[in-house]
Amino acid sequence: MGQNNIMGGMSKTHATTMYNNDRARGIMVQPPMGHTQAFDNAPLMGPRPPQGRFNSLHHPHRQASPEPAERPSEFRHEYDMDENGALFFLGSSGRRKMWQNPHGISQVVAFASSIGMGKPEDIVGRAVVNCRTHNEPFSYIGVDLGVGRALVPNVYTIRNRNCSSHVMMNWAFEASNDKVNWVPLDSRQHMTGVREQDAYFEKDQKKLKEKGAASSYSIDTGIYKEIGYDGFRFFRLIQTGKNSSDSDNLALSGFELYGQVTRGRWA
Length: 267
Prior knowledge:
267 residues, alpha+beta, Jelly Rolls, 2 domains, 5-stranded antiparallel beta sheet, 4-stranded antiparallel beta sheet, 7 helices, 21% strand
């Protein structure tokens, strides 16, 4: 006996229930003649198939892959060494995975004028370690965000190593798109060599000398009205005077960037 004849012998309510149960199990059936409107308006009954990227009825062994990370528009600073910065984002694949050193997974390239202790990746790491350059004037450390990426920074964070000596006191924060021509975005001076003036910076000096201490600094974004808002790929901190131990070693153990993303794929 045909399907229409079977349905024709049932009540409208009974037919609707059978049809909806078949739909819930993924069985394709046609509504019985004369019941089209009733079936179109009837709610789906019974268990639903998984609503993930793949229907388990058609791909029983295929797992849904993680959604791609959204391209960030801005990295906003909340506190020193938080998890909102550009380098943390790249080290965690857009906050989808456990953080790894972004230099170690080739998301960025950390660089320095020289390495006297530690490794280049320590510059963008999260652990407090002993990282410093050789004793050379105008030593610097920096990071290359990668081909195609650009950032207009408004805050940067630095962190001291696990030692209270040879602490950077005076520096300039600079940016570039070719690693040759550098634009100064910010500068700080906490030690002048003049006793009366240095007394004014005593509190800041003490903070910078704390083992593993992190400090964040805002950039006067008015500078971008002059140099433009295209953003930069390379960033560096260059020591512009003697450190707290009267030498030229630049010692740091952590660096982070915040600001507006202007171009590129991120993670």
